[in-house]
Amino acid sequence: MCRFLVYKGKDEILLSKLILEPQHSILTQSYDSRLRLDHRRPHNGDGFGLGYYTPPNLGPDPCIFTSIIPAWNCINLSRLASKTTSSLIFAHVRATTEGSLNDSNCHPFAHGSLMWMHNGNIAGWRDVKRALALAIGRKWFLSVQGSTDSEWAFALFLDSLDRAGYDPDSPEYTRAGFGHTVLRNAMLQTIQRINQFVADISLDANGQAQGGVGVAGVDGRSLLNFAVTDGHSVVCTRYVSSKTDEAASLYFSSGTNWRCLGDDKGQYKMERRDKGADIVLVASEPLTFERDNWVTVPTNSTITIHKQTVLIHPIIDEFYNDSPSYQRSSGYAVSKGLVSNAPGATSTPATEKADVLREKLGRGGE
Known about the structure:
Blueprint: E1 3-14, H1 16-19, H2 26-31, E2 48-52, E3 63-67, H3 75-81, E4 85-93, E5 109-111, E6 114-121, H4 125-135, H5 138-143, H6 149-163, H7 171-176, H8 180-201, E7 223-229, E8 233-238, E9 251-255, E10 257-260, E11 268-271, E12 279-283, E13 295-296, E14 301-306, E15 309-314, H9 331-335, E16 345-346, H10 358-362
Parallel strand pairs: 13-16
Antiparallel strand pairs: 1-4, 1-12, 2-3, 2-4, 5-6, 6-7, 7-8, 8-14, 9-12, 9-13, 10-11, 14-15
Helix pairs in contact: 4-8, 6-8
């Protein structure tokens, strides 16, 4: 399946330093996903997309560039990335699961100041799609331009925001943002609603659960690694609707400087001069092979970036297990090409009352 990358920095960065130059950049991952455990389909060549925020005088909405050309074969990507800077960037390379090969199906998706990406799949999508479409408001139904489960999930997110009293089209929120708590709550509501749609097709004629297999033998496990931003805060999820399976891989790195090591082309490193997090990266696969640069986001958790502060919270629902020794199987995510064997420390999810992870990040996620 797909790979995505999020950059949120105190300062702007040249896109090429993330997209093109690192040894295992997201462009490299489009044709050489060497950390992928499933090698039956190693390419992410069904298009790509970039989204980034521009200076305020150009408006609050992000600039989106997408193409169905494989990222490794697009000269315009190199031209754009080598001359564009931003302090908040989304990047995505696609391997098709749902939807045809066209620009409308390439991530990231945007509405107003909001931007959205997805890595994974909604279980039983062909049966879930109709129920989801009927459940959202007319405005959000009409906003969908493509045919992917990912964009419909975004429409569901917009509907969830709206139902909570936060109109995505409100000039107030478009200009100043929704706040990280509002975004995270809407994300949790979106996941809960998706799970309910899937559960509804996993019932037999008497309304009894069929163990996750419903209509025509549909597997009820969804892989929902989402990323959303309003231009101010970022919320990402690493999630699977299963009690026993591992979610698709997700990592983050933070520090004070993202630097190329001398003349060694492609050798980048996240430096930490203090306990601050001037730069935060979230990625499906690490961009470097430095073990102490990357922290594994726990399965069924959210990672929130707000004012360069990183917070990790568990997603507590019927698929959550609070035991630190609980082991999940990676077999399902591996079969989808969504787990990497990259090195990285493991981060423990915080509770709702937990403080920020700033001190832990300053020690390299130990």
